[in-house]
Amino acid sequence: MARWNRSRGAGARTRAGARSTRSRPGVIDTPIRAAMPEQARRDMLAKAAASLPVGRVGAAEDIARQILGFMANGFATGSIVYIDGGALVI
User: Do 16 and 3 contact (CB within 8 A), yes or no?
Assistant: First the structure.
């Protein structure tokens, strides 16, 4: 029978030895936004960028780097990392 642990912070149930981490992205400029009219897309992204402390919206690469970091760190578990350009703190 598997032993279950409750992961602190992420609140996910995991089997013993398994890890549970989460990335919480903010506004990310991804290809799915191509369905928007171009001017509306640019305006929305510019407005979002102006509201963030880092002054830009995220890119898919920003999220990928964090996920790779979780994969490289075998000690990280039960973590939620907000990748939102500082939106959480404003």
Answer: yes
